TrEMBL record:
Pfam families the record matches: KH_KhpA-B
GO CC annotations on file: cytoplasm
Intracellular or extracellular location(s): Cytoplasm
Family: Belongs to the KhpA RNA-binding protein family.
Subunit composition and interactions: Forms a complex with KhpB.
Gene3D superfamilies, alphabetized: 3.30.300.20
PROSITE patterns listed in its UniProt record: KH_TYPE_1
Molecular functions (GO terms): RNA binding
UniProt entry keywords in alphabetical sequence: Cell shape, Cell wall biogenesis/degradation, Chaperone, Cytoplasm, RNA-binding
Name under which the protein is recorded: RNA-binding protein KhpA
Naturally occurring in which organism (per UniProt): Listeria booriae
Main location: cytoplasm
Chain's role: A probable RNA chaperone. Forms a complex with KhpB which binds to cellular RNA and controls its expression. Plays a role in peptidoglycan (PG) homeostasis and cell length regulation.
InterPro entries hit by this protein: KH_dom-like_a/b, KH_sf_prok-type, KhpA
Length: 76
């Protein structure tokens, strides 16, 4: 899943080395935290959050194979 997120996000940003994905796992869910450079935040979120929503949709659809709920959080 981390590779999927990195594959989607890295071509969108200018500072590819600053893209970091971390995972927090609980008994019922997986939380992926995506961190990018401040200058690239607008590119990842997109106009009215469209790109962020599309990325989340792909992650959720792929994560439905697991028994755990999958979430993606974009942090600064």
């Amino acid at each position: 899943m981390e590779d999927l997120i990195l594959t989607i996000v890295k071509p969108l940003v200018d500072h590819q080395d600053d893209v970091v994905v971390s995972v927090e796992e609980s008994a019922t869910s997986l939380l992926y935290k995506l961190s990018v450079n401040k200058e690239d935040m607008g590119r990842v979120i997109g106009k009215q959050g469209r790109i962020a929503k599309s990325i989340r949709t792909l992650v959720y659809a792929t994560g439905n194979r697991n028994e755990k709920k999958v979430r993606l959080e974009i942090i600064e």
